[in-house]
């Protein structure tokens, strides 16, 4: 039904549509079954009382079934008393569906109403929505919507609105009219928020509210408009807003929501309040905030946000729960708005964008069940402690509180069965009250606490559970009271400056937790981590000094925990009790200081340090600097350096009173120090030629008297070098123009600054190189597969041709000095330009040009002295590498001293001084045994199920880092080194260098690494191989002697055809003849062999590379002519070696030299087939992106470590792409390749560049 009516005539009562009931002259109404009813009426006339739609005297419009009703009424354009829609005297509009009334007033006088429902009239729906849009409304009769919603809004969105007992606004709804609205749904007053073409909110008219009391109604109320304010009544009383139980009031503003006077907002139990403002929620008094109360000590919910800017400030002593209501999720501010409010619980996020602060108050305790985040402002969580102690409880799910540079402060207790993460950026985190204590003061441990901040202050006690305490602070850490960690939880505190704590206790019934403290100056109370089964590990690592109380890591039945103390300056502790129990051994104690160590307390029978155990004592190593400072280490008579009581490992005991100026070892107790320096012996005068300038007399050389040098009067004077340390350069403190000429300027620097000293570089090279030369000679001298006529050179002759010095150098004191002119000049090469550093290319040519049937094998130059590489050559080559690649390389030698079992390190870089350091706690037998144990842990004892890198694996990895890298770490960092080529002694060459670990990260997370046999046997010439093709060959099936390698069917073509460019040959095409022929036809720069290879046998002639039909022996490799033209890289993707075998190590580390190639990528152990696939594909993928091979290997290993190369649901993924694995290969459907077992064995041998 559609009715349209327009009033006419010049007088009054000219209505558009007029219905009257039974008492009228013309009674009428409209009824529709399942149909809609539309009425459109426009009043006419020129005087008063002209309505658009007028119902009176029980006139009725109704629909039954599914029909809806729409009224559009426009009054006449007259003066007074006009209505758009007017229902009076029992008129009814009843809809079985929705109902919409729109009333517009055109008159300009008084008493003009858009929609008026009066005098016992009624509008209603059956559980459906009612919408009233009007210039103004009078609702003196019921509006019934059942469960439907009621929306009442001005026709003009800019109209101002007054709600409650106020006369404000163009559009007004009184308290009485609100009570005539009957629904269990939502009543919305005001216009919806819209945006313009620029996505900016369109302003709405302001709203003022006074006295809304809806306790008797249970509908939800939404008020939306421009600025929304709570104002005084005409009698100047404060505004009162009361909401019924289980209902919601929602305020949505395009401006601000403000308190014009002291608001009394009273919420019912389980009711909700939503404040949603574009530009802030402003209380009348910023110090107090909006006053919100909850009746009858109930609880109510609250959510608030600012969409553009502004603060949120609520004040209540009642029980509010921050939650998500509608579109508003918790409490949040935009711009730089702050949040300040009290609450009972935080069940939804609290977020202050920008620099706004967040302050949360808990008057009855605070349940923190969601995250809190500020852009860069402060966050304060306070539980008022008067009259009773209150706590913040984070519940049972992990929580995060974060700010980028602000301060996070807790006042009141903190507890919960979850981990709390606090991230303050470079800001401060501070706890003013206990952690892990409930409201009654009983210990209730917080499960764990992770803090990342600038400074961290715990001003009271802390009790934590199994997840322990982790602090990473760029500034300092202070813990004023006892820190207690239960259930085996760990303590890890890393500080950029100082660490100051009270007692720390991580003891547990079973296994004590680990305690790690790192910072500048570390000062603590007692450190205790005992356990029935095992004590925990204690590490205190300070950049300056350590001062602790007593340290206890003992176990009552099992092993005691290890103790590690390492500062640059003094260490002072009480006592150290690392005893093991009746069925365990004591922990190891390692102490390293560059000044003095003091143990000032005792326990038991006057003991200061004990590592005794029922089945053996742990080692005790104390490295101090008293020897160099002429300060003895005293046991029992403590002064500056020593212990007040006994030092014992159970089996061995150093009892008072004893004093040690130098190093002292008793069993597994070692007190180590640097010998007190001896005054140098004066140097002799140097005889000079009167026709030349004089050399300075203050030459700095080894402190042993040198004889005069016999010179030729017809030549300028040569510098005197010392053969004791093989110094290449000699310090001459004089201006460079004081010397007119030198016959060997390339090896002698005249400068006013400190030049580079050899410090044993040539000594190390001469001890390393012959072992490889002899091994290679033995390989090529083998006649197992050759007739005598094919091999005429004996091992003895080859060794003679190498002209090698003994591996064990002579005692320095017994070395003779050859003072003849010939002996001096013989150090120079016999080439045409003897004084220039020998190039890497020319050096390597003499090392690799020989063939298997020639006597000129690798390294044979017939002139031993000319073959030796000098420090100047090495540094020149390193500088060339830097220029061509942009990387900063270093050589790190690790050698055991000939005259003692100690390990020595030698660092060589492109220009800075050589560094030579003893590693006093690294003894040959211990180190080599641990190297073998390390490999066994990574391979034989690898748990494929847990895939964890822990236990002894991690312990060994960290120990070798401490031995091989940490002593040089400062120099490596200052010289900005990012690539290390390790040159290692016997027993160390089979170390998985990539798996070394500093406790936080693997070595490859900072450096690319490689393994050289020696520098003399390495081709240092850099060639970019990005455009080099690969010859890839593989076998997937073998006889009964070898396991199949099914993944090579994917690996070989994938590398040759997808990841790199080249040719691939598999299985029956993988023969010696084809390998030789393909290389002759095409000078492939990379040879990739995906097959079994072994260096694991005692005899060199038994090592092999498995081809399809035969085994390629090492003494046959030269027949492949890989050196002519040079192969830049050989990849052996399935090789294996033995644990700790000398010949195995020589064959593995020297394979690049033996094969006549520059670099070899091979594995120390036979890796799972899919692990090899992952590493190899990633390696070739990364070689496209980087400049050197070692960096490509590093990136490939990092990709596996980070889980970027893996198999999932039968598909192999790597950082570049993915490929489904053929089902017939029966490879694992899923594989996690992140454990070092899969990637750390792969080693780059020879040149890492």
- Distance linking N and C termini: 89 Å
The number of distinct helices, counting runs of at least 4 residues, comes to 17
Global mean pLDDT: 80
Poorly predicted residue ranges: 676-756, 783-867
Q: What is the CATH C level class of the domain at 1030-1246, in words?
A: Alpha Beta
Which percent range fits the helix content?
A: 10-25%
Shape: elongated
How big a fraction of the residues is strand?
25-35%
Task: Report Rg.
Answer: 44 Å
SS class: alpha/beta
CATH 2nd-level architecture of the domain at 1030-1246:
3-Layer(aba) Sandwich
Write up what this structure looks like:
By secondary structure, the chain is of the alpha/beta class. Among the domains are: 379-472 and 486-495, no CATH class; 516-671, no CATH class; 1030-1246, Rossmann fold (3-Layer(aba) Sandwich), CATH 3.40.50. The protein is 14% helix and 32% strand. The protein is built from 17 helices and 93 strands. A hairpin with a 2-residue loop joins strand 75 and strand 76 (669-672). The longest helix is centred in the middle third of the chain and has 21 residues, at 761-781.
